[in-house]
Amino acid sequence: MADYLHQHMTENRVPGMAYAIVRGDQVIDQRAWGIDGDGRSITPQTPFVLGSLTKSFTALAVMQLVEAGRVELDAPVRRHVPWLRLAEESVTARITVRQLMTHTTGLPQVAAMGLTDRYDNTPDGLTRSVRDLAGVRSTARPGGAYQYSDANYMILGALVEAVTGQAYGEHLRAHVLDPLGMTNSAATAAEARVAGVPAGHRYYFGRPQRFGPPFDTSGVSYGFLAASLSDLTHYALAQLNDGRYADTSVLSPQGIAQLHAGQVSTDGGGGRYGLGWRESTLDGTGDRIVWHAGATANYFSHLVLVPESDLAVVILSNVYSLAMDGPLTSAAFNVARMIQGGAPQPETAKDPILAWTLSGLLALAGLLLALLIWSLVRAPRSGRATRSWRRIIAGAAGSVASCVTLLGGTLWVLPAMWDGAGLAQVLLFAPDIGHAMIAVAVLTGAIAVVRLGAAGYALTRR
Question: How many Å apart are CA 14 and CA 34, to the nearest integer?
Answer without folding.
Answer: 8
